[in-house]
Structure formats: structure tokens, C-alpha cells
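Quick one, C-alpha cells below. Sequence please?
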């Protein structure tokens, strides 16, 4: 799955996080273990700081469960519509 410029523009518009920041985070994640709960929680915390949005323990738990359990949609662009 490639990340299109259109998708990045949608994310940037909705989150006020620059495309450069998004791509930088993605590069750091490439080598990470996305089946590791600690890694996922670290990413959630970093995104929370970047966006200025609080993520509750319950929300974090749901995100971790979805990522570790491969329950993330293949078409992320559809989530931004």
C-alpha cells in the first residue's frame, strides 16, 4: 500500500500535521515491530503530542488491539473521507 499525495493532503488538513512530519514518522516506523504493544503505545503517545489530542487509556487499548490483531483497513484513504 503506497501513501498518495492526496491521502497526505487529507491527513494534513484534518490534523494540522505537516506532510513532512507524517512522512518522518512513517520512516521511523518502517523498522519498528508493529506487533509489539510497547512500540504501538509509543507511536500513539507521539501522535498525541504532535496533534495536541489526548488519547484515553481505553482509546489506546483499542488502537493497540486493532493494530496487533491486523484489524486495520487496507484502504486508509477511505477513512479520511
Amino acid at each position: 500500500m503506497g501513501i498518495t499525495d492526496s491521502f497526505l493532503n487529507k491527513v494534513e488538513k484534518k490534523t494540522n500535521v505537516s506532510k513532512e512530519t507524517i512522512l518522518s514518522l512513517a520512516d521511523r516506523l518502517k523498522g519498528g515491530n508493529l506487533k509489539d504493544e510497547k512500540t504501538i503505545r509509543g507511536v500513539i503517545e507521539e501522535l498525541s503530542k504532535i496533534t495536541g489530542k489526548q488519547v484515553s487509556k481505553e482509546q489506546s487499548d483499542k488502537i493497540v488491539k486493532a493494530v496487533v490483531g491486523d484489524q486495520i483497513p487496507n484502504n486508509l484513504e477511505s477513512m479520511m473521507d
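DSSP finds four helices and no strands in the chain. The helical segments are 5-15, 19-30, 37-51, 57-68.
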